[in-house]
Amino acid sequence: MRAIVLVGGEGTRLRPLTLHVPKAVVPVVNRPMMFLILSWLKSHGISEVILSACYKTDILKKVIGRSFQGMKIDYIYEKSPLGTGGAVKRAEQFIDGTTVVMNGDILTSLDLSAMLKFHREKRSGATIALTPVSNPSAYGVVETARGGSVLRFLEKPSPEEVAGKVLNINAGVYIIEPGMLALMKDGKVYSIERDIFPKFIGDGFFGFVSRNIYWMDLGTVAKYSKACRDILEGSYKIKGLEVIGKNVKLGRGARVVKPSVLGSGTYVGENSRIGELSVLGKNCAIGKNCVVERAILWDNVKIGDNCVISDCVFAGGVKVGASSSVSGETVLGEGTVLAPYSRLRSK
Ligand code: GTP
């Protein structure tokens, strides 16, 4: 079976992390976000994936490639972003049978196989995955009837509208049958939630509700960091997680507090402490007498001696001069250089 994954967004809310790489390539505990999604799709029998791309396509192709664990990967491009709905319409040629369509920034343990079974049993034209969240006002809420038919979409309802209610939100995973997009125009900008799904209502459109699953969209830095921490703590499990990579070296008195992950070639200087809840990418170098906690450092980050780095995300190649303190959800873009004795705290 085939899946179409939407990866064409600019990921503006993740800036500066997405200034040089598309969101799909952003490392989640040292592997591209897309690899986690592809593993999940593979575990549910998907054999072919079409990536619907638009932003930083060269990097995307270079990192993700043409195959993944035996799955075939293909690409379809937009010259300018067509929105989530326009992108699906553009990929319509690939919807020649029951097809999974999903956002490319979701980490979930949703049982896609059960959703496919539900879709077939209902003889559904389109099925949308739904999951309850405690703060639905940040999402698209979907109301369904008892048998699962979709009744109504409520885009980002106000806190008053949803107060005290357990509501299901659009989990960003869909199953679509051929022909469903016939009325949409090619090359037009559409939102899948606002322009396409409301038109499906009453025409064999079902919601598949999953409770007690892991579900996180990694669209903001806070949710990205939370997903990384969830993986470290085991609430989202990934296979083959390498906790300490090859050629990691610790200086005398250096400690790594669990759960933390250190990429290959990383060096931790004398008497420094890494963790808890830290991820260091490949070839990072941490000076002497440092504390690095609840921090996500991508590859090639260099931290001078006597630094305290906590609750931060640093993109690749960041350099922090000695005796600096960076904390409070600070996010540094690729290649940022901080002078010695810098003080940075975003919250
Ligand atoms: P923000 O700019 O931070 O809102 O991020 P985003 O651009 O990724 O938008 P959003 O989170 O709403 O997108 C959800 C999914 O759809 C992501 O996986 C995006 O890559 C993808 N997406 C959004 N817009 C487009 C588009 O115009 N074309 C394609 N092909 N994919 C898109």
Quick structural gist:
The chain has about 350 residues and is α/β, with parallel strands linked by helices.
Give an overview of the whole structure:
With 347 residues, the protein is of the alpha/beta class. The protein starts with a strand and ends with a strand. The strands form seven sheets. The protein has an eight-stranded mixed sheet. The protein has a six-stranded parallel sheet with strand order 15-18-21-24-27-30, with no helix packed on it. Helix 3 (83-90) crosses helix 6 (192-200). The model has no long low-confidence stretch (mean pLDDT 94). Helix content is 18%, strand content 31%. A hairpin with a 2-residue loop joins strand 2 and strand 3 (31-32). It has two domains: 2-233, Spore Coat Polysaccharide Biosynthesis Protein SpsA, Chain A (Alpha-Beta Complex); 249-345, 3 Solenoid (UDP N-Acetylglucosamine Acyltransferase, domain 1). It has helices at 33-43, 57-64, 83-90, 112-121, 159-162, 192-200, 221-233, and strands at 2-6, 27-28, 31-32, 48-53, 67-68, 71-77, 99-103, 106-108, 126-133, 140-144, 150-155, 167-176, 205-209, 215-217, 249-250, 255-256, 260-262, 267-268, 273-274, 278-280, 285-286, 291-293, 296-297, 302-303, 308-310, 313-314, 319-320, 325-327, 331-332, 337-338, 343-345. Bound molecules: guanosine-5'-triphosphate.
Characteristics of this structure?
alpha/beta, Spore Coat Polysaccharide Biosynthesis Protein SpsA, Chain A, 8-stranded mixed beta sheet, 6-stranded parallel beta sheet, 7 helices, 31% strand, binds guanosine-5'-triphosphate
